[in-house]
Design brief:
Blueprint (H helix, E strand, L loop, with lengths): L2 E5 L5 H16 L10 H12 L4 E8 L2 E13 L4 E11 L8 H16 L4 E3 L6 H9 L24
Parallel strand pairs: 4-5
Antiparallel strand pairs: 1-2, 2-3, 3-4
Helix pairs in contact: 1-2
């Protein structure tokens, strides 16, 4: 397969467009919420991510066609006193799924995390996304818990007024 994984330069219109195109396809999918992204996101996402030095975007291209992405944000583990890298978005275009692109994106993210001195990778996944969960398990991810008696960590959020 001639798919190439690159670290995005969000100042390049082709990379900014690829970011939105793949992310919008993911958002429109049932596992992404089933709704297209807004015009505001289309017009501002690349520039806003570019302002954040702790954001890392990787794109998969089949020639000129964007076919996958991993959007990652650095965090910090206070328990380890080291950075961590969160995979916030991982998506592959429908016609390219099942070809190992997501696995290659995860490997590239892990390479970046090691270069940054990160202690771990993190991500969140919907319980019903069996395909993604299987990929993550086979890539070394597991549910997070400090003690089995207290249970696994739960991902929660609180939307704020815009």
């Amino acid at each position: 397969m001639a798919v190439e994984i690159v670290k995005a330069d969000l100042g390049l219109p082709a990379h900014a467009g690829a970011l939105f195109e793949v992310l919008n396809a993911y958002a429109s999918d049932a596992m992404g919420g089933g709704e297209s992204l807004s015009d505001f996101v289309r017009d501002n996402l690349a520039a806003e991510l570019k302002k954040r030095p702790n954001a890392h975007v990787f794109l998969a291209f089949d020639g000129e066609r964007a076919v996958g992405l991993a959007t990652c944000i650095e965090g910090f583990s206070t328990f380890a006193c080291k950075p961590l890298l969160n995979i916030h978005d991982l998506a592959v275009m429908p016609g390219y799924r099942g070809q190992g692109i997501a696995r290659r994106l995860i490997a590239r993210v892990e390479e970046q995390a090691r270069a940054l001195g990160c202690c771990k990778l993190t991500l969140e996944v919907l319980e019903g996304n069996a395909v993604a969960r299987a990929l993550y398990r086979s890539s070394g991810f597991a549910g997070y818990e400090l003690d089995p008696a207290t249970g696994k960590a739960m991902f929660m959020h609180k939307p704020l007024d815009q």
